[in-house]
């Protein structure tokens, strides 16, 4: 029997073998010619993945939370006002970080499983001058995706910037940073970008760079300060050695390989594939009579799904049965419903066959937990979606 289980949590995800080989290659000096090329070309490829030709990419050791903090440390000055859109756990985290830097935070809190209304955002923007608005593109605690296409335009109309937590979206969920005029997008390596945990990545558009340059106060976080990082990014991109803090050589190697694979697939094709995975799983969930955390189809993310256990099914027993089928799902994260739902990550290299495997495990686990349903209904519904997509 296979020892390795299929990891289907919302990060870390399953990584491509060539990405893991790149990670395991001999560590070189961070100023070796080979590595300078790898770092430089990774920065260039990042612009294509974020679809932001004019953005300034940053590759920094750390997790997604650090990427959030770097954005805040560079943009917030004490006394600023920030508007935070909350669609789950990670919106609250953003607000918490912003407060630590001395800004006043107003929140718009979406109903659980719902998204934020554009009207409510506009009302707030009209009532106050905000330096920027933060939004969690996909909140990993609820599986809710916020439609951010018009948000940049709206925020700019009122003189505010828009900062997007794309940790669970970049390279999976549809996102055109430049076309949608988003001033800063941040992410981490271990989610849809498909690289083991350890990299904080940011793409900073010119307006946000200007915002950082025109600040009047000193940045008190030494490690986060763009002043230290910008010359390093510029040097590597010009294929020159540089140093501020030692880059994680192996992870950058792995990032380079993953970005190459992502661009080889192509961004649009990748967005469509993620949508298909979501649609297939969604059809199965509905056919089995289960309910999702997102309150309607249009707000369900394409990178992960959040699903309630049906009445009478014990969550830990269910997840144990899933584990016996060779798959790992994640439990709940949102404090209000933590023990009432589970989460399935389907981002990065995931293929329809793995969704089918997940649905099969769900059916077997539900059956063993005493839930009544028509065996095979979920599989059939998903297969119909996958078959229809091929012609
Ligand atoms: C995972 C995640 C984070 C935090 O990233 P870490 O790497 O765990 O620090 C932040 N925001 C969102 C939307 C996430 O999914």
Topology readout:
Elements lengths: L5 E2 L9 H7 L9 H18 L5 E6 L2 H12 L5 E6 L2 H12 L3 E6 L8 H10 L4 E5 L1 E2 L4 E2 L5 H7 L3 E5 L18 E5 L10 E6 L1 H8 L12 H12 L11 H17 L1 H21 L16 E5 L6 H10 L2 E2 L12 E5 L6 H17 L8 H12 L3
Helix pairs in contact: 1-9, 2-8, 2-9, 10-12, 10-13, 11-12, 12-13
Bound molecules: pyridoxal-5'-phosphate.
Task: Write up this protein.
Strand 3, helix 4 and strand 4 (104-109) form a beta-alpha-beta unit. The protein is globular and about 65 Å long. 42% of the residues lie in helices and 15% in strands. By secondary structure, the chain is an alpha/beta fold. The longest helix is centred in the C-terminal third of the chain and has 21 residues, at 267-287. The strands form 4 sheets. Strands 2-10-9-8-5-3-4 form a 7-stranded mixed beta sheet, sandwiched between helices. It has a two-stranded parallel sheet with strand order 1-12. The protein has helices at 17-23, 33-50, 64-75, 89-100, 118-127, 151-157, 206-213, 226-237, 249-265, 267-287, 315-324, 352-368, 377-388; strands spanning 6-7, 56-61, 81-86, 104-109, 132-136, 138-139, 144-145, 161-165, 184-188, 199-204, 304-308, 327-328, 341-345. It contains 13 helices and 13 strands. The structure holds pyridoxal-5'-phosphate. Pyridoxal-5'-phosphate (PLP) is lined by residues 11, 63-65, 90, 136, 139-140, 165, 167-168, 188.
């Amino acid at each position: 029997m296979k020892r390795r289980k299929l990891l289907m949590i919302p990060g870390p995800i399953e990584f491509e073998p060539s990405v893991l080989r790149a990670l395991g290659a001999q560590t070189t000096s961070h100023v070796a010619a080979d590595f300078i090329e790898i770092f430089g070309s990774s920065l260039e490829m990042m612009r294509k993945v974020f679809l932001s030709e004019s953005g300034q990419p940053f590759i920094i050791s750390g997790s997604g939370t650090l990427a959030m903090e770097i954005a805040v440390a560079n943009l917030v000055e004490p006394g600023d006002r920030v508007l935070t859109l909350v669609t789950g756990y990670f919106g609250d985290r953003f607000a918490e970080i912003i407060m630590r830097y001395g800004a006043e935070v107003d929140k718009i809190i979406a109903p659980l499983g719902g998204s934020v209304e554009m009207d409510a955002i506009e009302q707030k923007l009209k009532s106050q001058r905000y330096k920027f608005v933060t939004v969690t593109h996909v909140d990993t605690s609820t599986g809710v995706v916020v439609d951010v296409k018009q948000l940049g335009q709206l925020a700019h109309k009122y003189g505010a910037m828009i900062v997007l937590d794309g940790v669970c979206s970049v390279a999976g969920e549809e996102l055109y940073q430049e076309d949608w005029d988003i001033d800063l997008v941040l992410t981490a390596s271990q989610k849809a970008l498909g690289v083991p945990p350890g990299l904080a990545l940011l793409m900073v558009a010119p307006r946000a760079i200007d915002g950082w340059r025109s600040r009047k106060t000193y940045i008190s976080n030494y490690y986060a300060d763009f002043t230290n990082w910008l010359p390093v990014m510029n040097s590597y991109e010009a294929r020159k050695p540089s140093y501020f803090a030692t880059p994680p050589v192996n992870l950058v190697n792995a990032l380079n390989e993953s970005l190459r694979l992502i661009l080889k697939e192509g961004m649009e094709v990748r967005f469509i594939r993620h949508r298909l995975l979501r649609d297939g799983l969604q059809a199965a969930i509905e056919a089995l009579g289960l309910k999702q955390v997102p309150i309607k189809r249009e707000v369900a993310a394409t990178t992960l799904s959040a699903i309630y256990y049906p009445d009478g099914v014990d969550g830990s027993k269910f997840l144990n049965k899933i584990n016996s089928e060779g798959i790992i799902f994640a439990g709940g994260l949102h404090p209000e419903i933590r023990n009432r739902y589970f989460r399935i990550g389907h981002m990065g290299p995931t293929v329809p066959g793995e969704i089918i495997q997940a649905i099969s495990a769900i059916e077997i686990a539900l059956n063993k937990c005493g839930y009544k349903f028509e065996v095979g209904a979920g599989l059939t519904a998903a297969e119909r979606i996958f078959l229809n997509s091929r012609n």
